């Protein structure tokens, strides 16, 4: 029922699956106090991947003196980028495609604004229409074009989507892709009540926005909401011997525990992303306490409080 969309194989030709696309910033729209939507536009985006869902991309940030002149436009862009002298290495950060309009050669990305503490948030706060930009993303003409998609629900009946403001773009895009008879819940923690975004979800999937408001720490709204929903709605196996979990140090490693290619039993699938220590807490609760099958939950640390994204 909830499998990822596929498309005809007819037009596929060998190409790099994930590559740099040049574009221009064509719109900057403040959606709410903490969300800004940036639209990228350019001829190269005619071939940008259209699979949607939680499609991740790299937003490359310009260097003050050389812009994007040194960024490798090669198949092995990451290896080639690492080999550049440090002063020629553009920083980049991971974001989610919120919408793609191939006919208009446009891609939208929603930025959760958190001040000017990182290169991506600072860029999003100051970018102007007409600025040059660079996105590394999927090439729709490549056989590997679904690279960077972790939403793999199989044929389940009930879904849980949960995350903070950085996961909101992915959750909204996934919600809009669900079939009309999907069931479940989306739980999204946002900075303030003014950050609720419009999203079209099937009638059977409730969408709950939980503002942190002043004084509530990151995860303080998400964790209890996910616990509460899971305890009431999902049949786990809490009396079984707890599944052993590796104790990931989220300050040193990325928390990325995504089931690969398992065939699920048709009941439940959860997708959970956000601040890494919050996701670690939820992982411990859902797997070790509530007894959920690890193969039915994707846990993704999207960022770590106090640490820049690791290249
Ligand atoms: C697969 C994936 C998809 C993502 N999709 C999106 C998306 O669509 N929209 C989006 O906004 N983010 C998204 N993120 C999160 C985004 O990559 C991080 O927030 C990233 O750290 C922002 O880069 P920066 O340059 O602003 O800050 P960095 O240089 O990485 O960090 C600088 C400082 O800012 C802090 N920081 C980073 N992000 C936040 C935050 N959101 N709130 C408060 N403090 C923060 C860090 O802890 C650090 O102390 C995604 C991450 C992943 C892995």
Provide a brief overview of the structure.
The protein is an alpha/beta fold and 311 residues long.
Identify the CATH class of the largest domain.
Alpha Beta
**Number of structurally distinct domains:** 2
Alpha plus pi helix count? 5
Helix/strand/pairing category: alpha/beta
Low-confidence stretches: none
What report would you give on this structure?
- There is one protein chain.
- This protein folds into two domains: 18-138, Translation factors (Elongation Factor Tu (Ef-tu), domain 3), CATH 2.40.30; 158-303, 3-Layer(aba) Sandwich (Rossmann fold).
- The strands form two sheets. A six-stranded antiparallel beta barrel has the order 1-2-5-4-3-6. A six-stranded mixed β-sheet has the order 9-8-7-11-12-10, with helices on both faces.
- α4 runs parallel beside α5 (276-289).
- It is globular.
- The chain starts with 17 loop residues before the first strand and ends in an 8-residue tail after the last strand.
- The protein has helices spanning 77-82, 119-126, 168-177, 222-233, 276-289, and strands at residues 18-32, 35-41, 56-60, 92-101, 106-112, 132-138, 158-163, 183-190, 205-211, 256-257, 268-275, 297-303.
- The chain contains five helices and twelve strands.
- It has 311 residues and is an alpha/beta fold.
- Residues 56, 93-96, 110-112, 114, 117-121, 166, 169, 302-309 line the site of flavin-adenine dinucleotide (FAD).
């Amino acid at each position: 029922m909830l499998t990822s969309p596929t498309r005809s194989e007819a037009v596929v030709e060998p190409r790099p699956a994930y590559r740099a696309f040049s574009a221009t910033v064509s719109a900057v729209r403040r959606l709410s106090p903490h969300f800004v939507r940036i639209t990228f536009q350019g001829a190269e985006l005619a071939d940008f991947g259209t699979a949607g869902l939680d499609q991740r991309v790299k937003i490359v940030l310009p260097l003050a003196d050389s812009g994007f002149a040194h960024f490798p436009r090669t198949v092995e862009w990451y290896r080639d980028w690492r080999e550049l002298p440090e002063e020629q290495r553009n920083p980049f950060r991971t974001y989610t495609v919120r919408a793609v309009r191939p006919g208009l050669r446009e891609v939208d990305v929603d930025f959760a604004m958190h001040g000017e503490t990182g290169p991506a948030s600072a860029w999003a706060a100051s970018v102007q229409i007409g600025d040059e930009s660079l996105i590394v993303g999927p090439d729709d003409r490549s056989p590997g074009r679904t690279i960077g998609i972790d939403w793999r629900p199989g044929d389940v009946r009930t879904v849980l989507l949960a995350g903070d403001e950085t996961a909101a773009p992915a959750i909204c895009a996934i919600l809009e892709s669900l079939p009309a008879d999907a069931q479940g819940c989306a739980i999204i923690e946002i900075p303030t009540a003014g950050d609720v975004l419009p999203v079209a979800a099937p009638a059977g999937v409730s969408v709950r926005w939980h503002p942190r408001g002043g004084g509530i720490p990151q995860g303080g709204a998400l964790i209890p909401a996910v616990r509460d929903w899971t305890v009431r709605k999902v049949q786990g196996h809490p009396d079984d011997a707890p599944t052993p979990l590796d104790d990931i140090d989220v300050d040193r490693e990325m928390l990325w525990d995504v089931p690969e290619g398992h065939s699920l039993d048709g009941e439940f699938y959860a997708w959970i992303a956000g601040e890494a220590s919050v996701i670690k807490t939820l992982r411990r609760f859902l797997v070790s306490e509530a007894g959920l099958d690890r193969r039915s939950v994707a846990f993704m640390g999207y960022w770590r409080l106090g640490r820049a994204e690791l290249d």
